[in-house]
Amino acid sequence: MITQLLYRAGTAVLKRNSCILARAIRVQSCYSSSTTEPKIAAKHPFKVDLEGGKRYPWCACGYSKKQPFCDGSHKKSAPGLSPLRFTLEEAKTVWLCGCKQTLNPPYCDGTHKQDFVQDAEVPAQQ
């Protein structure tokens, strides 16, 4: 069974097909019983200018080479995870989470400042 969550934060409209979204952002796809956890992709958020009305795929697995957006890497590296697709109602600059541990995906909530993120090994910045 697929569940759909509609979340409004300011002018953002988020839609996501998922079963679980918890503190460690353990996301279980409704198609899988996997408990794959996301990889910390960066120890900082990404400042991005987004267009209104355009749908964006935020990488939730941490394996994308196009952070903070999805490039499909989850299909091979984290098959239990899928991107969070969201649309802004109007153009704006936002800070998207790079550590994949936020409680307010896809937006940064400052979790990257915690020791478990800062002490984690992350790939070299591209």
UniProtKB/TrEMBL annotation:
InterPro entries: CISD (IPR052950), FeS-contain_CDGSH-typ (IPR018967), MitoNEET_CISD (IPR042216). Transmembrane segments: none annotated. Pfam families: zf-CDGSH. It comes from Huso huso. SMART domains: ZnF_CDGSH. Signal peptide: none annotated. Its cofactor is [2Fe-2S] cluster. It comes from the Eukaryota. This is CDGSH iron-sulfur domain-containing protein 3. Residues 43-80, 81-118 form the Iron-binding zinc finger CDGSH type domain. Keywords: 2Fe-2S, Iron, Iron-sulfur, Metal-binding.
